[in-house]
Amino acid sequence: MSDHRPSPAEALAAKKRELLRRKLAERGLAPSGTGRPGIAPRPDGARPVASSAQRRMWALQQLTPGTAAYNLVIAFDLTGPLDATALRAALGEVTDRHEILRTVYREDTDGALTPRPLARPAVELPTHDLTGLPAADRDREADRLATELGRRPFDLATDLPLRAALLRTAPDHHVLVLVAHHVAVDEGSWEILLRDLAEHYRRHTAGDGQDAQGSPGSSDSSGRPAGLPAPERPRLQYADVAHWEQGRLTEEWATRQLEYWRGRLDPWPPPSATSPAPRGPRRSWCCSRPSPCCCTAAPATGTSRSAPPP
Prior knowledge:
Layout: H1 8-26, H2 52-63, E1 71-79, H3 84-97, E2 103-107, E3 113-117, E4 127-129, H4 135-151, E5 162-170, E6 173-181, H5 189-205, H6 238-248, H7 251-265, E7 304-305
Parallel strand pairs: 4-5
Antiparallel strand pairs: 1-6, 1-7, 2-3, 5-6
Helix pairs in contact: 3-5
């Protein structure tokens, strides 16, 4: 038996994971090791419920119908040969893997917001070939198309909260534009989404269609290439978090919250002696950030295109 000693990087990663587990356990989000349960998958047949954050985002969207203020946009430059069919299939599998990316939101007859996951919805990846334009105009047209996609509002009752487009600016260069609604994605979600997308794409293109035994054209029962094993499905979905949260919203919990804030705000704190800061110029919104708009892709400088911070 070999005596494997973790490298300094592995040891540091293990320490970070343990620290994260402890932080989550303190909030009841992970097993604490002391018998305190963390979040568990919701029971089979449990009625989907919206989290407080989802209800808040839904309400904000209803206040300004047709707004794109809660759209999050990201664009990536992809250099080298690209299999657009495999990328579209990978995007569909990521949507299937993460339930929240295929969930729509509708109000019941009693006015309660109900998330409704869709089963295997069709995921589109429209491709725009810009190679027929003069080279000097391609980036400008790519920027325009990315802006147009980012400014298109979502109808949360019918639209998937993730859309994409592929812009071909050269035979070996593409721009992948992803737009997500904030009801389903936050800034920290992009890393997970892109990692899974890359993993599924590699699976579709592994061995140029050969399986692990070298048989060309082999596929699994779903018709997908069998060159690499399918990634393990997540143990938890966001709907499990929403179900767990609703279970905590008891009268006892509300009483504790009320007592806490009464203790903090009674007596009422004195007014601040400083005068309020003057308001700056009014900001205009078109996507997830104030002007300059985040859905206006910057000229390519690396693997990703990002907007300047607000």
